[in-house]
Fold 4-hydroxy-tetrahydrodipicolinate synthase.
Amino acid sequence: MTTPVTAAVTAADDRPAAPFGRALCAMVTPFTDSGALDLDGARRLAGHLVSRGCDGLVLSGTTGESPTTTDAEKAALVAAVREAVGDRAALVAGVGTADTRHTVELALAAEKAGADGLLVVAPYYSRPPQDALEAHFREVADASGLPVMLYDIPGRTGTRVEPDTLLGLAGHPRIVAVKDCAYDLLGTQKVLSRTGLAYYAGCDEQVLALYAVGAAGYVSTVANVAPDLFRAVLDAFDAGDTGRAALLQRRAIPLIESMMAAGLPGTVTAKALLGALGLPAGPVRAPLRPADPETTAGLLAAYGELAARAAQSQV
């Protein structure tokens, strides 16, 4: 008699633990009108996001304009946000650069400032081969006592963190998670099926798809303006209401598209919308430029439509 394949499923196939929470926001870095770091605004925005359902914040990532903030600003941001949220949320500090030594320095500074984890992107521009990439990640992970989330976003870095490389890195005791922006569902499932790495959807349109195959949660740019949006998607899925989870994910698509797929970086659209909603954001730093009034009006329309539908259904 043939044994059904489902009979072989064991506790080992359960979803990996979420080391930094499930619902993470890739938080913008607020600036003053003059372009200086706005630590008070950062405290207020972080408190708002956590009160609205985020159990983790990623600081100084892509959305946080890490290429144009100084090392001192990055450390000050972590310390200020830690002061604001206490132990109510995990703080993951973006420390990835194109230079291994510099990345290690930022990792140690983030640890000292109070971060709970490190977001380490693949070195950009130099496009190291996979063996050099693996050595880079191992050196950074060895340098501090903090757990590491690898950031796979080849569209920006020019280098893919290949699934086989991730399989090798999964054995490192402090490499615990991946922020996945690779758009490779097969590769993601390959790593999920063979390791205990916690995957976080880094592309908002993929939150439900990756969660359904075993991801731990998400790191969302859209969560800056709608922090409870994808939390509701995960909650519905966990409650067994997969139809509602799918409905909520689809309902978010117009806002996702207007913020993430309309030709402007998510930092620009998130800051435009946050400012229009009266929340701390401020300008972007050059070479980025602010959204024009027409774009901001379109963002507000998409946000308003989503908010109205959520209110009608009491999400």
Q: What stands out?
A: The radius of gyration is 19 Å. The first helix runs from residue 39 to 51. The chain has a mean pLDDT of 94.
